[in-house]
Write a structure and sequence with these properties.
Two copies of one chain form a homodimer. The longest helix of chain A is centred in the middle third of the chain and has 25 residues. Chain A starts with 10 loop residues before the first helix and ends with a helix. Chain A is mainly alpha-helical. Chain A has ten helices and no strands. The first copy, chain A, binds a DNA duplex through helix 3.
Chain lengths: 187, 187
Amino acid sequence: MSEAHRREKQPEQVRRSLLDHAAQCAVEQGLGSLTLQAVADAAGVTKGGLLHHFPSKQALIEAVFEDLLTMLDEEIDRLMERDPLEHGRFTRAYIDAFFQVTQDGSKSPWAALSISSMTDARMRELWSQWICGRLERHATTDSHPSLQIARYAADGIWLANLMKLDGMSANELAGLRNDLETLTKHA
Amino acid sequence: MSEAHRREKQPEQVRRSLLDHAAQCAVEQGLGSLTLQAVADAAGVTKGGLLHHFPSKQALIEAVFEDLLTMLDEEIDRLMERDPLEHGRFTRAYIDAFFQVTQDGSKSPWAALSISSMTDARMRELWSQWICGRLERHATTDSHPSLQIARYAADGIWLANLMKLDGMSANELAGLRNDLETLTKHA
DNA sequence: GCAAACAAACCTACCGAATGGTATGTTTTT
DNA sequence: AAAAACATACCATTCGGTAGGTTTGTTTGC
């Protein structure tokens, strides 16, 4: 049925499309009830085509998670470059990055993904490794207890936004973000 | 095969057993891949027996969630009674209750449950209503920004413990809890 | 430079296991 | 006798994964 068969091959674009649409499908239907067929349809290929790029559902999900993790990592680097203050630089970038995806509410690709990741050992490992590595890298500037609390609070706020049917108001979020930023500076 | 058929009927106990084992199964395998058969087996009844108590899978899950929510609610009341200080009384109880389940790590019945609840609109509603109601009740004592941050941080810590393969050490948790408690008192 | 051969990128068709749910029977309680 | 508390048997479907085909791209041999 699909013409992907007959059009010129674009493996990279197809792969990207699969990752993006898988994330989106996961958001809309929840990762548990995510189906290969739905992802394939959304990406404009067949299930067979999908399984050519990702040999199993698990592989697909993990790839999406790694993809998002990489994006987060890069975004944090970007934010850190623009921060003149050394103390708490990573923490502020972490908070900012989380507030960015928090604003998107449950529309964010992170929503369903990171949620269901907790039931999956492999994904917990990926996340655990990432955060541990990052904290180690910035141990000299970001290990103060206040900064730890601030990061946890950012996680909590992110979580609260997922739990709410309608996310928090922009004002509310701005206020909270300000409070957290203050926390990272007064030390 | 089972003898539940032939033994004396104990609807209340069976119902309780189903709720408990459903929670436990959800923790072990994740709510998404939770199966009625597994729950029924664990509780020592057949799938038919389970479906007699809970007409559908969704109904079972919601019942478990409501059950846990009720327990949390009662525990918080209990903790609040023993707190002499008025300011931040609810917040401290909230934090303490969350640290209790946090200590259990991913063994806690809350783990998989509350996690997957985010993909379910009905459960988000239940949680949302509970926390909103509670915050309204204690508006005069628990609406200070610092308390809000403290509660969010408690959520974040709880979350972090679920993400880690091995939870935090008892020492680490104790330290964090102390920090949060301080946050609720200096105003 | 140009086929032939090979590999990569898809698609179609199908299978089998798992699972939620139904319908109905049997035993116990009231 | 009626209803509640179970069990047994079965159905319909969904969904992940496999097998093998077809088309497109790339490399190799001459």
